[in-house]
Amino acid sequence: MTLHRPALALALAMLLPLAALAQTQTRPLPQADRTPAPATSQGTQTGIATFGNAGEQQVIVRSYEADSILRDQYRIDFDALDSNGDGHLDRREAAAHPTLAAEFAGVDTNADGRLDREELRGWIR
CA-CA distance, 112 to 78, in Å (whole number)? Predict the structure, then answer.
């Protein structure tokens, strides 16, 4: 059996609303058993985002700096590493700090092969 274009169009026109309806039905999410506990981070807050429309329940997402376990990997004593006292750290001097040595190119924002205090602003104790 072959459907002609008008009959096919009519059949599709009748089925499309049903297909759309099946895809748009929603059910409410089950209620949570308890209210989530607030974060207990001791680090400095680094960001916040709020989601939701006015008059509705809103979701607040906060970000904090890394825990102290990682913090020491991203801290240096600039004067101790600057062995020649020129106010910059070259790759040889940075090699004494494994994390800094591994990320040297990313921290060297002006690509001059040396790191100054401004480039290391987040790293210096």
Answer: 18
Q: Which residues of 93-110 are buried (b: 16+ CB within 10 A; e: fewer)?
A: bbeebeebeeebeeebee
- CA dist 15 and 22 (Å) reads 11
Q: Read off the pLDDT band of 71 (50, 70, 90).
A: low
User: In what helix (H) or strand (E) does residue 47 lie, and over which residues does it extend?
Assistant: strand 45-51
Cβ 76 vs Cβ 125: under 8 Å: yes
pLDDT digits (tens, 9 = 90+) for 82-121: 999 999 999 999 999 998 999 899 899 899 999 999 998 8
DSSP 11-36: HHHHHHHHHHHHHH---PPPPPSSPP
Question: How far is 105 from 108, CA to CA, in rounded Å?
Answer: 5
What is the rounded CA–CA span in Å between residue 92 and residue 104? 11
State which amino acid sits at residue 83. S
Amino acid (1-letter code) at residue 82: D
CA nearest neighbour of 65 among 77, 57, 73: 73
